[in-house]
């Protein structure tokens, strides 16, 4: 038996010795291979640094902008960078890219220069990156020297260790087998005891007790694994509950906002029913605006509620989202009249990634609460962007500046000294931050300068792209008549940034003095900030003076529906304040375009709607633009109407009792196909459902376009104008 054991021990020792010899050979081979890899890595690093230095020298010596004639030099560096990263991933011992942000920053700087070729920013950002890259290069050389010395020592140590191991292993194997059975029995008993212990306390376990248990150094490895898994599960459950609570808080705040608007509508309707005095006109305006705002917010709320606590990220336009927020802020609390101006800079990020619905509600609630907390009704909304601490991010700054008057030069506002009056609302900021997606920081703060107050919101975002301003008004000439310095500054900056020339008239007399030269202007813009005149009479007089000049348009900016209604016959277009560049400029372009006179064509409209109120609203919208329409109550009647006569545009309710709009549309398209109808009817679907999938079903049934209920006058008229133009083209 002893001879047998001795044979086993000897065989094991020989096997281990053979394995060690093979491992030693492999290690030596790998060392040689690694040396070759390290040399190649050094070469790639050196090439990348030389190309980056050449780019820096080119930019430094450059006197023009842009400095580079094309992107070839940039693309060459990006190719070097990719080759270096690929080589580094194969030789992670010489250099680790984990935490090495200089290479990622280099890539971001190059991409940003291609998008926005700023020489100064590129040089400033490139110098520290180049220094860090040179440090990495030197580190590789140092490591290589150390490794060469280390490997020479290792060869000698390996031989000594090999001999020692052979001697020690012989003794070890002789005793290990004898101890193995005893240890195995002990471990089995130990595991049984551990499991009994775990089972005895698992019923009362939670995340806090798991943490205290894991802090105990005396627990076994098996227990530690079990408690770690249980702690992870408890944390996930608690996180889910916390996210649910945060979402419920957000939904409650949104519900509060919607209930406030609903109360305005209910109270307004009650007064309108019982009262017939002059205040009914203003109250009707408040009810109309509140209804529109409620409709838009409810649609946004439905989208947020349908998402629940699920993470939904998408690409979206920050500028469009900002425009929507400002419009809703200006419509909120119409019982309290606000004078709002907007100063929106041109350097804002355009496309972001994240959840736009959550960002909309967080910003809307923060800003609307700040407005409600102030008694000052003169508000300047200023939006700007600057570089964040992370080079890949941008810091977006939204300011609500509460002024004692809006008749102040914007340069004076720029030079105000602001003192912090309230410490950041950390709780609200943390709450907002926990809800938002793809926003790395979020903070709010109040400031004061004399009697002026300011509410500031800052957030760090990662832009996908920046907006590129196209000079839509290049070569155009505008005369602005206003006596508010702030309005003059803002409108002038907007027009000039889009390539237009501007002249200022601070009183009606300034316009009439230069009446002979009015034909030089593409448009004259009158604001409702001018004091001491009757605006409607002024517009009427001026309109008569320039009516012969077809190329000169008369435009009006107002904040009141009543002013707009009275002045509408005497102006070419009316804009509502606050003026938001991305919404304002396209309207200006459209307003100054000279439309050709066309022969009037009598178009046939059909309203397919089962709701009497919706029938009335839609027919009223059409009548205001002098369109007449026939009304039917269901899909079958619509199909029969199409069979009996030619109908140009059909407004089709998608969901109705009996035959719905989708089925009716399919039958109409089938009838047109069978009868080879030369000009098929334009079918515009109408639905209260806002999801893209529902709209897709309507379009697949054969509808040309889908609009959302409740009906909005602007959307209806734009859609009609578009499809009447298409129909007239097909007729001609």
TrEMBL record:
Keywords: Membrane, Phosphoprotein, Transmembrane, Transmembrane helix, Two-component regulatory system. SUPFAM superfamilies: CheY-like. Residues 604-724 form the Response regulatory domain. The chain crosses the membrane at residues 6-29, 157-175. The modification 4-aspartylphosphate is found at residue 653. It comes from the Bacteria. InterPro entries: CheY-like_superfamily, Sig_transdc_resp-reg_receiver. Pfam families: Response_reg. This is Response regulator.
């Amino acid at each position: 038996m002893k001879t047998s054991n001795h044979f086993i021990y000897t065989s094991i020792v020989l096997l281990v010795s053979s394995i060690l010899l093979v491992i030693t050979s492999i290690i030596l081979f790998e060392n040689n291979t690694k040396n070759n890899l390290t040399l190649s890595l050094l070469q790639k690093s050196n090439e990348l640094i030389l190309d980056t230095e050449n780019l820096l020298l080119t930019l430094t010596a450059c006197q023009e902008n842009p400095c580079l004639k094309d992107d070839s030099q940039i693309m060459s560096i990006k190719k070097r960078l990719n080759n270096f990263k690929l080589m580094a991933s194969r030789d992670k011992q010489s250099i680790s890219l984990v935490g090495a942000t200089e290479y990622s920053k280099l890539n971001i700087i190059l991409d940003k220069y291609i998008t926005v070729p700023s020489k100064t920013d590129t040089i400033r950002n490139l110098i520290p990156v180049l220094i860090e890259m040179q440090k990495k290069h030197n580190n590789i050389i140092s490591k290589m020297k150390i490794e060469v010395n280390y490997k020479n020592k290792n060869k000698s140590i390996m031989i000594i260790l090999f001999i020692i191991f052979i001697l020690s292993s012989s003794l070890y194997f002789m005793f290990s087998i004898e101890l193995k059975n005893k240890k195995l029995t002990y471990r089995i008993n130990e595991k049984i005891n551990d499991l009994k212990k775990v089972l005895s306390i698992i019923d009362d376990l939670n995340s806090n007790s798991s943490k205290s248990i894991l802090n105990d150094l005396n627990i076994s490895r098996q227990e530690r694994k079990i408690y770690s898994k249980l702690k992870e599960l408890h944390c996930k459950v608690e996180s889910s509950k916390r996210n649910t609570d945060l979402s419920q808080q957000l939904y409650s705040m949104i519900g509060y906002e919607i209930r406030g608007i609903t109360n305005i509508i209910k109270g307004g309707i009650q007064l309108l029913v019982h009262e017939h005095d002059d205040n009914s006109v203003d109250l009707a305006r408040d009810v109309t605006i509140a209804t529109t705002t409620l409709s838009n917010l409810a649609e946004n709320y439905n989208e947020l509620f349908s998402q629940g606590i699920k993470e939904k990220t998408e690409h979206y336009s920050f500028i469009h989202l900002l425009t929507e927020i400002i419009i809703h802020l200006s419509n909120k609390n119409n019982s309290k009249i606000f004078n709002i101006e907007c100063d929106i800079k041109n350097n804002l990020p355009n496309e972001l990634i994240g959840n736009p619905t959550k960002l909309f509600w967080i910003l809307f609630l923060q800003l609307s609460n700040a407005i409600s907390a102030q008694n000052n009704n003169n508000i300047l909304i200023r939006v700007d962007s600057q570089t964040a601490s992370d080079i890949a991010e941008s810091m977006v700054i939204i300011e609500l500046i509460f002024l004692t008057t809006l008749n102040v030069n914007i340069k004076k506002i720029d030079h105000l000294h602001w003192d912090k009056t309230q410490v950041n609302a950390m709780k609200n900021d943390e709450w907002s931050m926990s809800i938002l997606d793809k926003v790395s920081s979020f903070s709010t703060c109040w400031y004061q300068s004399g009697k002026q107050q300011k509410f500031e919101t800052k957030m760090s975002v990662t832009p996908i792209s920046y907006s590129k301003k196209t000079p839509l008004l290049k070569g155009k000439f505008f005369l602005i008549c206003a006596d508010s310095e702030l309005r003059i500054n803002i409108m002038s900056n907007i027009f000039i940034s889009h390539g237009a020339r501007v002249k200022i008239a601070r009183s009606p007399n300034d316009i009439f003095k230069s009446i002979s030269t009015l034909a030089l202007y593409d448009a004259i813009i009158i604001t409702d900030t001018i004091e001491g005149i009757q605006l409607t009479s002024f517009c009427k007089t001026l309109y008569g003076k320039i009516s012969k000049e077809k190329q000169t348009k008369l435009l009006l900016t107002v904040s009141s529906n009543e002013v707009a209604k009275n002045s509408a016959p005497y102006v070419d277009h009316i804009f509502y304040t606050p003026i938001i560049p991305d919404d304002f400029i396209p309207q200006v372009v459209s307003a100054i375009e000279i439309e050709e006179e066309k022969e009037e064509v009598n178009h046939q409209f059909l309203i397919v709607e089962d709701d009497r109120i919706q029938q009335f609203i839609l027919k009223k919208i059409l009548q205001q633009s002098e369109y007449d329409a026939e009304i039917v109550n269901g899909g079958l009647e619509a199909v029969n109407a199409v069979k009996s006569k030619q109908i140009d545009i059909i407004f089709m309710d998608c969901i109705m009792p009996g035959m719905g709009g989708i089925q009716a549309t399919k039958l109409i398209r089938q009838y047109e196909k069978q009868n080879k109808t030369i000009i098929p009817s334009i079918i515009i679907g109408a639905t209260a459902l806002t999801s893209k999938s529902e709209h897709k079903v309507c379009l697949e049934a054969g509808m040309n376009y889908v609009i959302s209920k409740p009906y909005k006058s602007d959307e209806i008229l734009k859609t009609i104008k578009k499809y009447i133009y298409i129909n007239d083209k097909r007729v001609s």
